[in-house]
Sequence to fold (203 residues):
Amino acid sequence: MSTDGFVSGNVYDKYRTKNPLFRVLMGRFLVSCRELMAEAQPESVLEVGCGPGDLAESLFGSSPKAPFYVGSDLSLLEARGARVSAPHRSFLAASAYRLPVADGAFDCVLACEVFEHLEEPEAALAEVARVARRYLLLSVPWEPVWRLLNVARGSYLKDFGNTPGHLQHFSRPAIRRLVARRFEVVAERRPFPWTMLLARQRT
Fold:
């Protein structure tokens, strides 16, 4: 279902899965995300597409050194659920295209597994650039490898391995080109099967 230019897809709880292979993959994903977050050293973070807040919990936990954090999600239901499960953090319902925060309000914008669901990724990138004071930390599935893996495991065959809800299919050069329109890419991690970029505001 399309809502405000975002198309949701299948819901897989990758943070609580008992699948041993996916647990290993997610572990590597989180290590890469922590490394890039440590490089950015933000004092404030806005997460776009935060869902129930699982990524923030995995990255920051209850550390007293955690940056000031606000999570945003298009789904009011997700934002409400996140507030219940993590009452020590702030969450709001908002579109990636219209974030209700001031220009340059956050040191870093975090957008993991979001841009592949957007009908207009360039418009969302422009909005992210407006609110990010310094950095963008972004991840997307690595295509076409992501779809090939789905085919190999017999999933979504009638859609040639495309995960439901994925509107954009970013190769590594393609996501770098998109991000480079607004930011300078300063670091890249490749936790299989994702691409993860840390990009800095142009001066």
Remarks:
- The chain has a mean pLDDT of 92.
